[in-house]
Automatic annotation (TrEMBL):
<feature type="domain" description="Histidine kinase">
    <location>
        <begin position="126"/>
        <end position="325"/>
    </location>
</feature>
<dbReference type="InterPro" id="IPR005467">
    <property type="entry name" value="His_kinase_dom"/>
</dbReference>
<keyword id="KW-0902">Two-component regulatory system</keyword>
<keyword id="KW-1003">Cell membrane</keyword>
<dbReference type="InterPro" id="IPR004358">
    <property type="entry name" value="Sig_transdc_His_kin-like_C"/>
</dbReference>
<feature type="transmembrane region" description="Helical">
    <location>
        <begin position="12"/>
        <end position="31"/>
    </location>
</feature>
<feature type="transmembrane region" description="Helical">
    <location>
        <begin position="43"/>
        <end position="62"/>
    </location>
</feature>
<keyword id="KW-0808">Transferase</keyword>
<keyword id="KW-0472">Membrane</keyword>
<dbReference type="GO" id="GO:0005886">
    <property type="term" value="C:plasma membrane"/>
</dbReference>
<dbReference type="GO" id="GO:0000155">
    <property type="term" value="F:phosphorelay sensor kinase activity"/>
</dbReference>
<protein>
    <recommendedName>
        <fullName>histidine kinase</fullName>
        <ecNumber>2.7.13.3</ecNumber>
    </recommendedName>
</protein>
<dbReference type="Pfam" id="PF02518">
    <property type="entry name" value="HATPase_c"/>
</dbReference>
<dbReference type="GO" id="GO:0016036">
    <property type="term" value="P:cellular response to phosphate starvation"/>
</dbReference>
<keyword id="KW-1133">Transmembrane helix</keyword>
<dbReference type="InterPro" id="IPR003594">
    <property type="entry name" value="HATPase_dom"/>
</dbReference>
<dbReference type="InterPro" id="IPR036890">
    <property type="entry name" value="HATPase_C_sf"/>
</dbReference>
Amino acid sequence: MKLLKSFFYERRVIYGMYFFFWVLIYLTFYLYEYNFGPFWDSWLFTMFLLIVYSIVSFYRAFRKQKKLELLATKDLQLSNLIFLPKADTLSEKNYQEVLRLVLEKKNQQQDELQQNQKNMLDDFGLWLHQIKTPVAALDLLIQLGQIEPRRMKNEVFKINEYLQMILNYMRQNLDQADLVFQQLSIEKIIKSVVKKYATFFSQKNLSLQLGNLEGQVYSDQKWLIFILEQVIFNAIKYTEDGTISIAFSENQLIIKDTGMGIRAEDLPRVFEKGYTGMNGREQQRASGLGLYLSQEAAGKLGCHLYLESQVKKGTKVTIVFPEEISAFE
């Protein structure tokens, strides 16, 4: 009954015009005193056609409604559009095309979400592999009864660093609202980062050479510190009994070490997510996230990271800051 009422309501203009038209004809015949025989014959014929039209149209509307009800019971997917009834009008055709485009966009977004989730799980696997090293070291010290506060503190420090890394990884899709640009003293920033790793310099007999650090840059303090921590900690990690030097000149901050260096074939991929190179695979202490996240953060800050290295001769990382401050104002 509801469908029948809807059917007649949607076609009320057709039926209204039909009866209005025949009322006018009736009045014409009446006023001119014509014979009503032809009038009734014509009216009965057109009424028959109207009834046939109504039956056929109602049947098609009934079938269309059933298809739509069937479609409503299914998960709305692009493949289910085959259940849509055939469009009878241009408007219906346009509506179906809009629906198809919406579903295509939905599928694309779902695919991207699934891929992002897969990538995140893979990256968490890399990070868990990295954080297991200091955890295992702590466990071994406890099992052996070697309660050495200094060594235990170092391992706890590493765990904290890896936790900070994963937190920054979770925030890697930061937008401009997360950035607070301001004038920063390079010397102040560098000394705060170096102080954080002072214990490791002492433990590994590393010497630190601070060159010219006078100057300021226009950047975000939190993310700049994160980049410097990753670069300097890598220098410490892969340098044994050597030197790490830091200097700033002409909007370029240069951090050099005399560590094991990186193979030439690994250099083009050091900023790729998850890529550890030969050094990381041999020492089992790299996740391949540090330099990747640093490069991502540098891009947000308008900086560029460049890395040069030779095996057994060390590595040089150059951070190039934007020359024009006005670009961020």
